[in-house]
Amino acid sequence: MIRLSAGTAALLGLSTNRMDAYPTTAYLLSGKSCQMKCAFCPQGTGENEILNRLGRINWPEYAWDEVEKALKKIESKGLERICLQSVRHSEGVEPLIDIVKRVKNLSNLPLSLSAWIENEKEAAALIDAGVDKISVSIDVINPSAFKGIKGGSQKDRLELLLKCAEKLPGRMSTHLICGLGETEYEALKMIDMLLKANITIALFAFVPLKGTAMESLQPPPVDFYRRIQAGHYLLKQGKIDFNSFGFDNERLASFGLKEEVLKEILSGGEAFQTSGCTGCNRPYYNERPGKTTYNYHRPLSKNESREAVLQLLESSKIKSVSR
After folding, report:
1. CA atoms within a 13 Å half-sphere pointing along the CA-CB vector of 223
2. In angstroms, rounded to a whole number, what is the distance separating the alpha carbons of residues 108 and 212?
3. Which of 297, 323, 307, 103 is nearest to 315 (CA)?
4. Each residue of 91-138: pLDDT tens digit?
5. Which of 276, 286, 271, 91 lies closest to 172 in space, CA to CA?
6. Dihedral of CA 31/126/23/219: which sign?
7. HEC profile for the chain?
8. What does the alpha-carbon distance between residue 111 and residue 175 come to, in Å, rounded to a whole number?
């Protein structure tokens, strides 16, 4: 058995659900009841009624033969990538290698993997099996918050990610969840370090989910998230370097650009779309339809782009510079 995101199942014809927006990546999830006990995630709770959720998304389970038949026709659905996610279990990477080979026999689309790995050797074995990108998810940016929310050592996971990125250039990625106690300085400092290591970053806004230890907390303010998105985009595109930023008590106060230049760079809206692997749009993973949109799953309209930039400039009181 394998789980698919609700949108993936609908797009592949395995369910009759009508979706407001469809994914451009096919999302698969292997395993149940994760050994990790991340306080924001349903997968480590052991509660059956919420184990079918990851983020805000339902992940119904299907027999492999049903999924294989659908995957044979996957490219005709307009999908650009396959993303395999796995809970942490005690069986190592061998079961994942088998799944990767099985999927690659059915489709030539690039395959991303987000899973628990122990060392660079395991990462290399998964790349050899056919994985395009491997995510070692950091998730929690502040080291003290990491220990309380995810458990274990952030330093160890970062070191593994950076070692893998050095040995497998361009093949590593990570997830960062904004709104878990980090400052804007901490977020952008880590983003800068990861980008310099050629690591792909997928940004998320924290989503409080019912049944988890963090269900009563609030998602981050949208202006806070817009500043992180814009900073990530500007660094990734080489428009500025980290030293261009100005901070006031670790809150971003300046991008080091004239306001009209900043507006022009951000006017296309790309900074506010879903980030991560090419072809990944994750519709409504962070937000409900009709509510605040943190990550747009499609190109923004001119009005949406203008609104996002105004949120950043007005709410955050970003200072312009003279140069």
Report:
1. 12
2. 37
3. 307
4. 889 999 999 999 999 999 999 999 999 999 999 999 999 999 999 999
5. 276
6. positive
7. CEEECHHHHHHCCCCCCCCCCCCCEEEEEECCCCCCCCCCCHHHCCCHHHCCEECCEECCEECHHHHHHHHCCHHHHCCCEEEEEECCCCCCCHHHHHHHHHHHCCCCCCEEEECCCCCHHHHHHHHHHCCCEEECCCECCCHHHHHHHCCCCHHHHHHHHHHHHHHCCCCEEEEEEECCCCCHHHHHHHHHHHHHCCCEEEEEECCCCCCCCCCCCCCCCHHHHHHHHHHHHHHHCCCCCHHHCEEECCEEEECCCCHHHHHHHHCCCHHHECCCCCCCCCCCCCCCCCCCCCCECCCCCHHHHHHHHHHHHHHCCCECCCC
8. 16
pLDDT at 89: 82
For 131, residues 6+ apart whose C-beta sits below 8 A from its C-beta are 100, 111, 112, 113, 171
Q: Residue 152 has which token pair? A: 């274990």
Say if CB 244 and CB 307 are below 8 A apart.
no
What are the tokens at 296? Answer: 């747009």
- Pairwise CA distance, residues 135 & 277, whole Å: 10
Segment 33-92, tens digit of pLDDT = 788 889 998 876 555 555 566 777 788 899 999 999 999 888 888 899 999 999 988 788
CA distance 53 to 72: 26
* Amino acid (one-letter) located at 161: L
Topology of domain 2-315 in CATH is TIM Barrel (3.20.20)
